[in-house]
Structures are given as C-alpha cells and as structure tokens.
Amino acid sequence: MALSRLSSRSNIISRPLSAAFRRSISTDTTPITIETSLPFTAHLCDPPSRSVESSTQELLSFFRTMALMRRMEIAADSLYKAKLIRGFCHLYDGQEAVAIGMEAAITKKDAIITAYRDHCIFLGRGGSLYEVFAELMGRQDGCSRGKGGSMHFYKKDSSFYGGHGIVGAQVPLGCGIAFAQKYSKEEAVTFAMYGDGAANQGQLFEALNISALWDLPSILVCENNHYGMGTAEWRAAKSPSYYKRGDYVPGLKVDGMDAFAVKQACKFAKEHALKNGPIILEMDTYRYHGHSMSDPGSTYRTRDEISGVRQERDPIERIKKLVLSHDLATEKELKDMEKEIRKEVDDAIAKAKDCPMPEPSELFTNVYVKGFGTESFGADRKEVKAALP
Amino acid sequence: MASLLGRFCRKLVVPGSAHGSRMISTTACDSEAVKSLNLYSAINQALHIALETDPRSYVFGEDVGFGGVFRCTTGLAERFGKNRVFNTPLCEQGIVGFGIGLAAMGNRAVVEIQFADYIYPAFDQVKRVFPTLEFDFSTAEFLIRGFNSQIVNEAAKFRYRSGNQFNCGGLTIRAPYGAVGHGGHYHSQSPEAFFCHVPGIKVVIPRSPREAKGLLLSSIRDPNPVVFFEPKWLYRQAVEEVPEHDYMIPLSQAEVIREGNDITLVGWGAQLTVMEQACLDAEKEGISCELIDLKTLLPWDKETVEASVKKTGRLLISHEAPVTGGFGAEISATILERCFLKLEAPVSRVCGLDTPFPLVFEPFYMPTKNKILDAIKSTVNY
C-alpha cells in the first residue's frame, strides 16, 4: 500500500518531508486529536471536552465506512426507482456521522435500537452489504430472511434490536433492554434512537420517567433532522430543544454532522449512563433525501437549504478534509477508495439480485414458536393447516 | 382492474342495468349535477361541505394542513382557516383525546389518523369517549396507536358513564386502511374488528367515492362517535360519478348491490371489487351470486343480510383482516342464529391469513378472487 502510494504521487518533491515517511493506511494507529466543530451544549451536566482522541486508522475507517453507507443508500434509491425494492424505503444519507460516531464509542455488547431509518445503523453494527440489499429486495438471505423489509433490520449477535415501523414505539423497548442489561450486570448500555417527530410521542416520556426512576443505563438519542416527514420541527414542537425535554434527565446537544463530536458524546453518555442513569443526546443532523422514497423532499424545504447543508456540513466532506489535512491519503487515493466502494456495492447488489425469494411456506413460520397461525382455505373450503417444520 | 372498478362503480348510477343492481334512493336524481371523482376527492368534497354547513366543526391530524398524505384534506385550510383545519404533532393518543374533549364541548371534530396501523395508541381513548369528533387519521395503522387508550375507553363510553350528561357524538375518526400492494406490516392493516367489539362507537366503511361522500357526511353528523375507515387502495383507483350537492347515505343500512339466488356474499370496502369479479366468474359457471355491501359494521344491518340468506340459503363473507376474530365471525354467528334451518351449507369465510400482514407474501395472504371463487363453488356444491 505504501509503495503504491509513493509511486503514484506525482508531486512528491512539493510534499512536506513528514509526508514522505507516511506509514501505510491499514496499520497506522498514531493517535490524533481532533477538535469538534462546535462546542457541546449541556443540560444538567458538564459537557465533555471538544478534543476527541482518535487515530489515523480510525479517521480513515470513518471515511471509508461513511462513503460505503452513502453509496449504499444511493444505490438503494436507484433500486427503488427500478422497482426492485418495493414498499417503503427510508434513506439515511446525510446522517451517516451519527451511525459511525456511535459505533466508534461503543462495543457490540451495547445495544442499539432505532426506528425505520436503519440501513446504515445495521451496517455499522457489522451487517454486510449483501444482507442489506437482499433484505431490501425481500430475498431469503436478507438479515430478516426477507420477511421484514427496509424498516425491520435486526442483528442479534451485535445487539442491534432493529428496525421499527411504528414511530416512537422503539423507545420504551430500548429502556426495557437497558433494564435487562442492568439486571444482568453487563456493564453495557442501550442507545434508543428516535427522530424529532417521535419526540412528541407520550410513550417517550413514560419510558424516560421509568428509566430515571430506576437508574437504567438507557441513552435516548434524538436524531433531529429537523423534519418529521414533512413537518418542520418548529411546527410540531413547542420546545425544539429536544435535549432538554428530559427535564430532570440530563441532556447534551451534539453536532450530528461531525462524527467525532458524536463519538465523544456517545462515549460521555455511556460513562454517564452506567453510573447515573439515563441521558438524552440530541444529534443535530440532516437528511438529504425526503422522508422516504415517496417523498421528493423539496415540498417543505428549499433546494437551497439542502444544497447549503451539503456544502457546509456534509459529514463525509468533513472527514475527507481532515484526512487530507493530516496527509493520510491523497485525493486520488480517496477517489480510488470510493471507486472500490462503488464496486463493492454493485457486487453486493448483483449477488442479492440472484438470491431467491423466500419459500411460500415462510409465510407461516415464526408467527408462533410452534403450531398455530397456519390456517388457510383450500378449494374444499375447509381449513387447511400447513405443515410447519 | 381499473376498468372493472369503473364498471363496478358506474353500475350504481345506471338504473335498471342488466345486472340488476339497485339505485341508492338517497342520492341524486339524474338532473342533479354530478362530477367524476376519485375517492380522495369525494372525501375532500364531503369535508368541505361538512365544514361549510357547521361552523363548529374542525378537521385536524398529522399533515392535514397541506392536504394530507392522501390529499383528502386539500383546500380546507385555505378555505376555512388555520383555526379550523390544523396540523397536530405526532401523537395519536393525544390527538384522539384532544378531539374527544373538543366534541364533549359540543363541537364536531373530524380527526385524521394517518394510517389505521397507527390507531392503536389512541385505541384506549376511542373506547372511552367518542363524541362527534371527526378525527382525520390518515392511516388505519396509525389509528391503532390511538386505539390503545383513547378510542375504546374514552370515546365509546362517555355518554354511557356520564348518564347522558356528556357525550362525544361529534367525533369522527377517519383513517385509511387496507392493503395497497406494497404496504407491508404497518401500512396495510384492517383493524375494523377491534373497533366492532366496542359498544358505543360506530364503524363505517365505504366502497366507492359516491358512497364515501354520503357516508362520511352521515358519520360526521351522526350524534355518535364514528370510526370511518377509507380503503386507501381506492383513493386514486376508484372513479365514479359523484353528485356535487350535500347528500347523506344512512348508516346501518346494508345495500344489495348485485342480486342473485344461489349464494349471498357479504363484504365491505375495497374487498367488494374483488368479490364482484368472483361473482362475474361464478356467473359464467351458472352460479347466481347476491352481493351485499355492509357499509356500516357497527351497528350492522342484520335484517338485510338475513333476508338475503333466507332467499339463497348460503353465505360467504370476505374481508382482508385475518380470519380468526375478524368481523366475518360475528356475521357468521348471527346469521347462523337467525337462519339456521334455511342454510344449505356452512357459512364460508374467505379472509386474510392468521399471520402478521406480510411483506413479499402479500399476494398469498390476501383473499383473492380465486380463493373466493373456489369457496363459492364448494359452498354451492356442498
């Protein structure tokens, strides 16, 4: 890797001397300290420092994974328009920093539960592209065996609890998972993610009250992309300071487009939750696509706004600038990486397209553990019980 | 499909057609102005008329201000103002409860739940009070959210438990329900059975634009709380000549939309179009089917169905909701009580399967024309 870099560099003479001794991308763990773009705003707690400990390896892996996520979502867009993905498809592009920053701060024992915009979170938890595309297209090798679809991705071995279609319903579930973690003394936490629209659901406050009462290690993460479907936050919420909504529960407002800020906040939140109980994180983020594929995304916000965010605050651009300024890779290398990623995504899609649909008998499986849920009507009008495996 | 739908809808307008369908006597006579409208436009018209005729009526729900996700509320905010037509935050339970309160003060509230799948949080409230509040719940799925506390416990029982001091008869909850081909688990549910189990509320389901307008106006003006399910699949697909004036179709009156002698078919909403196709196919095989649109599920018109079954001796019920505990079970049990000796065959139910509403398996899950046809034949040949 290092050799190819040296040979491909055209202007080696003009580069600073230190760069000539740059080590290879994959093994470098030189620590780097990165300043977050904005300070944290805190409610009932002391905000963490703006200096984030990272490494060159982490920086590059952030870039790579976020570019992968971005590419995956855009490919999903095209697949949906080609009618290979049916039903609903809620895309996460623009919000990648939240997924990646969170993963960097936690382990696979910590649980994550989110709403329907879950493709990238699943990928961050260790899911493969093939599983993602297979599930989106309803094929049997999908992560939920093709029975869940876009909104219902799960990964048990990485403590990823999905993937929920009903807005806000996942938050009390998340607090329940946190209870189980505390009960089993696992030293793990749960991140229950929801959006600014869901923040007005009553069940959130019920869950918060219980978590605070029993000191559960639950972290409520509000991914505030400022629009609940088509409704702007100021039209839906009296107090759009979602990090303060916990009242007696501390909160932190984070720039959700800065992966390092997210990482710092999640690390801070994990430490807090294990000692003191629940905390709310508000990630100030943005989605480029509309709410779902049936929403053009431009009827309730201007194109200028969208392109403005893309220019000023795009999470991948930010990481790219950091990579370039720390001389960890050249522009060309990053472009090559992106090409590689594109190919990876295309290969995964091609493989997923070849995967068959689930067997018709799968319609009846997993309704109950065994037995019921299999009646259907045959030509003789009598009830037919399908034989369950 | 669209042409069959068109035929199905237009048939109601032409008197004395070859299929023997009956004209609805409460709707316009030929000299009145009619317009070709689809379902969401007809509902929109009904809402316009409702708000026009009653200055104390309100329409609210998620995203209704700009017209709603299915365009049912277009033009209302512009015409009647933001004080009467407004958006609510994302909280079905709060929305229904709010509407119940508004209705208890003597107003008409039309509440929209965005998808019937979301009605369950409001369910509890609906049960409690259900005054004449018209909630515009966009989807029956989301209605399930409202289901949990408001509808069942608050709306339905307010009048009863207050000894008629209070009521929420001015409440109407509107929700799109039903399969749409790609809705998956949470945008395709048919929760009507849950609500039919709650005395104190009414459940109304129209089958076409013309019906929808008249039934919605009746529901809004009915002095009882009403849950009004709209078949979302028909929002754009169904087009019919709809009279432009203010008219109401009576609740709790079923309609025989196709006369026959061999078997009675009962259904509601979008499922009727599928049953209609099955009837046509059955006719080719010499089976004459009588098709009844129940329209109001609670309280339902037992007499019409009973009279029909006494004539034909056979009954088949079809709905999209899962068969176990579906409303077909209630119809079957009641008809059995009333017509036992007249029945030639067991009552047949062709319904959705007892699984969660599936994603890719939707075509297998649905009660399709062929399943209904098979059931018709085996019932007739019992």
From TrEMBL, chain A:
Cofactors (names): thiamine diphosphate
Assigned keywords, A-Z: Oxidoreductase, Pyruvate, Thiamine pyrophosphate
Pfam (any one): E1_dh
Keyword Oxidoreductase recorded: yes
Signal peptide per UniProt: none
Catalytically driven reaction(s): N(6)-[(R)-lipoyl]-L-lysyl-[protein] + pyruvate + H(+) = N(6)-[(R)-S(8)-acetyldihydrolipoyl]-L-lysyl-[protein] + CO2
Alphabetized CDD domains for the sequence: TPP_E1_PDC_ADC_BCADC
GO biological process assignments: pyruvate decarboxylation to acetyl-CoA
UniProt domain Dehydrogenase E1 component: residue ranges: 65-360
Molecular functions per Gene Ontology: pyruvate dehydrogenase (acetyl-transferring) activity
EC number of this enzyme: 1.2.4.1
Subunit structure: Tetramer of 2 alpha and 2 beta subunits.
PANTHER family in the cross-refs: PYRUVATE DEHYDROGENASE E1 COMPONENT SUBUNIT ALPHA, PYRUVATE DEHYDROGENASE E1 COMPONENT, ALPHA SUBUNIT BACTERIAL AND ORGANELLAR
Job of this protein: The pyruvate dehydrogenase complex catalyzes the overall conversion of pyruvate to acetyl-CoA and CO(2). It contains multiple copies of three enzymatic components: pyruvate dehydrogenase (E1), dihydrolipoamide acetyltransferase (E2) and lipoamide dehydrogenase (E3).
Protein name: Pyruvate dehydrogenase E1 component subunit alpha
Organism: Brassica napus (Rape)
